[in-house]
């Protein structure tokens, strides 16, 4: 896991605008104005003028109508909005699971929405960890096997075979970290909702992603279990500098992020 807190960046002509953060320390940036590097917000994931519509029979349903969004490195950004406001759509577009009708998406300084499919897959497998409201664990696999699945897919069978021991150790370490070191051989049906989501978080981290994209990660959990899962996400953010973009319809969950973006009428209102 990279620790972004200690990374050092040098500004270039195309560097994003820098905004000192009032909250947590951000990446260090060298500027012309100061002798020593300063802590700033650095955009990691960004969308510009994003449009997306779905077709349902004869009807076209506009969902996103020009969404400008920024998630800064090392921060938790929450996306809040009513059911049907396009939160999942936006998250899926940023996670390269779908393409917009119009607009641009950037990860770091790379435009991602127009990449060929293979490059999008590689980017997603290598840089993005995805978690969902209903966990999406494979029911026939154990906790440990579920966590290893993305690594198997991204390495391919032969390469995976060569590094399976290290990956298994990493998966065990991650399961330990999310408090499931004692549940390695359990199947999803033998786990509680909170344990399934913690397994999904460990699975999302196995490829050492730069950003975690979480779609209603507490949406199917009772309040206390939801708070525990959120506490785990905050711990990952604070201790490892993991950037998190989290979709929720729950204001009290959204309030715990570093910044909140509200989706309404297909556009964003920064809160
Ligand atoms: P949210 O996550 O905020 O609840 P979604 O992004 O899932 O909202 O959906 C936004 C709107 O787009 C909803 O009206 C939904 O019915 C519609 N929608 C989402 N995905 C599809 C799809 N694949 N085909 C048709 N309509 C869709
Ligand atoms: Mg949704």
UniProtKB/TrEMBL annotation:
Q: Do you know which InterPro entries this protein is assigned to?
A: AAA+_ATPase, ABC_transporter-like_ATP-bd, ABC_transpr_LolD-like, MacB-like_ATP-bd, P-loop_NTPase
Gene designation: lolD_1
Tell me what organism the protein belongs to. Bremerella alba
Chain residue ranges for the region called Disordered: 1-28
Which EC numbers characterise this protein's activity in its record?
Answer: 3.6.3.-
SUPFAM superfamilies noted in UniProt = P-loop containing nucleoside triphosphate hydrolases
Low complexity: compositionally biased ranges: 1-21
Q: Which domain of life is it from?
A: Bacteria
The record's annotation in PROSITE patterns points to: ABC_TRANSPORTER_2
Q: Which residues form the ABC transporter domain?
A: 45-271
Pfam families, from UniProt? ABC_tran
The terms describing its cellular component in GO are: membrane protein complex; plasma membrane
Name used for this protein in its record: Lipoprotein-releasing system ATP-binding protein LolD
EC category? hydrolase
Q: Name one GO molecular function term.
A: transmembrane transporter activity
Tell me its family.
Belongs to the ABC transporter superfamily. Macrolide exporter (TC 3.A.1.122) family.
Cite the entry's keywords alphabetically.
Answer: ATP-binding, Hydrolase, Lipoprotein, Nucleotide-binding, Transport
> For this UniProt entry, which segments traverse the membrane?
none
